[in-house]
Design a protein that fits this description.
Rossmann fold; about 20% strand; about 45% helix
């Protein structure tokens, strides 16, 4: 017979599973509240990739709001436990997900490592910082999914180090088909707290964007690599 604690955990995770859409809306609203997500259809941002975009997401701003920071960390930990209960280590993707990953790992009671974009060019030349034994089951914590390249590069580094990557949990995704295809090809299960669709719906419902701006946001999402050229 399961213990009371085990039964309570099962209830929590089942509840989380049934409330993903509610969490997506809540996180989207809070990101808008603190300007972690900026919607600027009339003055597009330019990403490092060269893409022009009416949206910019900076989840590092969450760290400056203790209540929100704690909420997001709990959501990440609960989602990771729900989907990947056998995880032995949590790994954050540098640099944006290091702090969020540490906070989530602490709530899960797991060791933490983080993965650099590439091995450092001094000292030990490490790409993975922390202790990671071959065969360890890992859940990856990420802050933002765009094209998926940097996130999956971290997965590749973990696999090359001998880890078994169970999947990834992230705060936000733009939901690009390209990213979905890359995650599928890499065999990585991805779950995010919020997403572009929830964000746009929340922004429209709260008057954050006008109907005209909403049309721009929808058009960008259909062909982001060519939008604005």
């Amino acid at each position: 017979m399961p213990s009371d604690a085990a039964a309570e955990n099962k209830i929590i995770y089942c509840h989380m599973s049934n409330s993903h859409s509610e969490i997506a809306s809540t996180v989207a609203r809070r990101l808008l509240d603190i300007s972690a997500v900026l919607l600027r259809p009339s003055q597009p941002f330019t990403w490092a990739s060269g893409w022009h975009s009416p949206i910019y997401c900076d989840n590092r701003r969450i760290l400056s709001y203790p209540e929100l920071r704690s909420m997001v960390a709990s959501f990440l930990a609960e989602r990771a436990k729900e989907l990947f209960p056998e995880a032995q280590v949590a790994a954050g993707v540098a640099t944006g997900a290091i702090a969020h990953g540490v906070l989530a790992a602490d709530r899960m009671g797991l060791p933490f490592v983080y993965v650099r974009p590439k091995p450092k060019d001094h000292g030990t030349g490490s790409q993975i910082e922390g202790i990671l034994e071959p065969g360890t089951k890992v859940v990856v914590i990420e802050d933002l999914i765009s094209t998926g390249m940097s996130s999956l590069a971290a997965v590749d580094a973990l696999r090359k180090a001998g880890a078994e990557v169970l999947g990834m949990v992230a705060i936000f995704t733009y939901g690009f088909d390209l990213a979905d295809e890359r995650f599928a090809q890499a065999g990585v299960k991805l779950s995010t707290l919020s997403n572009y669709s929830s964000l746009v719906e929340t922004a429209a419902a709260t008057g954050y964007v006008t109907p005209d701006q909403l049309e721009v946001l929808s058009a960008w999402r259909e062909n982001p690599s060519e939008w604005g050229k």
